[in-house]
Amino acid sequence: ALLDLSGVHEVKGTWMGSTTLPCTYTPSDDFTQQTLIWSMERDYSTSTIFRRDNAGDHILLSHFRDRVSVPKQSPGDASLLIENLEISDSGHYTCQVIWRSRNNSLVKKEVTTTVKVVKVAATKPIIRASELGPTFPAGARTSLTCVANGSPPISYRWFKSVPGGKALLLSSQAELAWDSLQPSDTGKYYCEAENR
């Protein structure tokens, strides 16, 4: 049986979002995974982030504590999930797997992925209506949801146009909801999306 690790050359992640660095192989009865090591190279120095061995999972850099994980119950999947990405997470990540064969020899393979963490500005939001609108009977329940993409966290604000060209701030949530619409709710509404 031939063991081969597969991964990808580069992964782009969004600041404050999460990303998965693929590292997979086809499990074989002839080989047992002994050790899995994820390391990161940045500024010409390499540090081990994650190690899985007979003693369990170890996260060795406090910078990554509570932010990295590897699937537990899926043989052959050694992919690394990084959450709450920071700009400083950009670098070269190497997945190294060591197997023991039936005749007790060790086989070692590795695959390297470059991670680029980028900040993405919030996109122009779109408005989704809960029902088919934009005309509703009085007394109806409905809601409008403001949706944008970009680096989280994204904050939303809802406004209603009022006479004199002013705007009334209605909500700082993504969703604007009415339990019972009144004729006075008729008007022009708009939302803003903003991130850092």
Automatic annotation (TrEMBL):
Which terms under GO biological process does the entry name? negative regulation of complement activation, alternative pathway; negative regulation of interleukin-2 production; negative regulation of macrophage activation; negative regulation of T cell proliferation
Question: Which top-level group of life is the source organism from?
Answer: Eukaryota
PROSITE patterns, sorted: IG_LIKE
Q: Where is the Ig-like domain?
A: 17-112, 125-196
Query: Which GO terms label this protein's molecular function in UniProt?
Result: complement component C3b binding
Pfam families, alphabetized: Ig_3, V-set
Q: Which residues form a coiled coil?
A: none
Alphabetized InterPro entries for the sequence: Ig-like_dom, Ig-like_dom_sf, Ig-like_fold, Ig_sub, Ig_V-set, VSIG4
Q: What is this protein called?
A: VSIG4 protein
| Species of the source | Sula dactylatra
